[in-house]
Fold this protein.
Amino acid sequence: KCHLESAKMLNLDSSADASLNLQSRLDVLTCTYWKAAIIWEGMFYPRLYDEMHKMKGSSVALTVFAVGRYLDAYLHTFLNSSAQHFMVGLPVTYYVFTDMPEKVPNIKLSPLRSMKVIKVEKNSRWQDVSMMRMKSISDVIESDIRHHCTHVFCFDVDQHLYTYDRNPNSKAYMETGDFYYHAAIFGGSWKNVKALTEACYQGIMEDKQNNVEALWHDESHLNKYMLLHKPSKVLSPEYCWDTSIGFRSDIQVTRLLWAPKYYDTLRTP
Ligand code: 2GW
Ligand code: MN
């Protein structure tokens, strides 16, 4: 109802747009027990959010890491597809973290978009390549993003679903959870993303001192953080889908797809 009224205020013509024909979804969970919306197709007006954020002057930072062989394997496709689909109509700054800045593809960006390439060292352990993203993101929010952008979204360059950490010695240990959060995409206001990345990084470093590593690395720490700090919006699997799962009647739209995993060639040292 609230959405409908706002749509009227913004003069969005609902008859002109099929997606404005909102029905509640009865086939899926649409609300967490702490009353955060779980975002599914058919539950919101995409254009309303777009217009609201344009009016508010929101600006978005997108962080992505392409280190070592992941650059050639995925970055080009990732950048092109996000240029076409991610937060179209809002100013977006790409923060590309790589050990090979000279190899970052020069893709055509619309006038509202720009790219910053940040050189990072290639950690010798892949687990650290993945985990240290939390520090790099926290640092760049502090030094740059907070001065230019209102929101930050953090992506895997490829696109996976796993279980909680079960090691009681890890800071990421969780006995039970409510949702499993995939770390391939998360975001929010820069303040919230800063708090999240900083806390995860601290958990990771504390684990290192204790010689433990969480089962799914940064993803386990992210899950622990989300358990303790409930998100105000939860994205449904529409936002992180693997087509090899096959048809599911509750998935009406897929908004973000996993790229193929080439573990044999990409993960061997
Ligand atoms: C990662 C694993 C093994 C060998 C290399 C890498 C690697 C990762 C790399 O050589 N270069 C690189 O840039 N990355 C970045 O880290 C890249 O952005 C990639 O998407 C991200 C996470 O690695 P990925 O996509 O291979 O891991 P997934 O898909 O199994 O990811 C989930 O679990 C991870 C922790 O194990 C992270 O939490 C990730 O966010 C999750 O989606
Ligand atoms: Mn991934």
Notes: The beta strands are 37-39, 60-65, 92-98, 113-119, 151-155, 185-189, 233-235.
